């Protein structure tokens, strides 16, 4: 009878220690999940801000201004525009 009681006591003690370990691990994982969710929200906010900035940077007026200032480009005027005409439809513009 004493052996049975001792075996049951050891089994109960082992089970209690296992349960404590599982609870600790579940709390640790929960905290890790919460940190990951916080990081996701932070990254989503940052992404939204970057999308707004991207849209602001890509306005046609700003692009035209940068093309003129940095690339020394200018608007196409009819006086500097050259038009090419096809001579005939058969030879596809190839001269013989």
Question: Can you tell me about this structure?
Answer:
There is one protein chain. The chain is mainly alpha-helical and 96 residues long. The chain has one domain. The chain is built from 2 helices and no strands. It has helices at residues 2-57, 60-70. The chain is rod-shaped and about 110 Å long. The N and C termini lie far apart (115 Å). The model has no long low-confidence stretch (mean pLDDT 89).
Major sheet details: none
Number of helices: 2
Say how many strands there are: 0
| Average pLDDT reading | 89
- How many domains make up the 3D coordinates? 1
Q: What is the string of helix and strand elements?
A: HH
Strand content: under 5%
| Distance between the ends | 115 Å
Q: Which structural category do the helix and sheet elements fall into?
A: mainly alpha
- Residues in helices, as a percent range: 55-70%
* Quaternary structure annotation: single chain
- Uncertain regions: pLDDT < 50 for 5+ in a row? none
Radius of gyration: 37 Å
Report the principal-axis shape. rod-shaped
């Amino acid at each position: 009878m004493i052996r049975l009681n001792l075996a049951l006591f050891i089994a109960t003690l082992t089970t209690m220690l296992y349960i404590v370990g599982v609870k600790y691990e579940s709390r640790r994982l929960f905290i890790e999940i919460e940190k990951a969710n916080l990081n996701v929200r932070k990254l989503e906010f940052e992404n939204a801000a970057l999308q707004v900035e991207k849209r602001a940077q890509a306005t046609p007026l700003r692009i035209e201004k940068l093309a003129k200032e940095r690339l020394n480009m200018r608007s196409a005027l009819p006086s500097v525009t050259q038009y090419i005409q096809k001579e005939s439809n058969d030879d596809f513009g190839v001269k013989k």
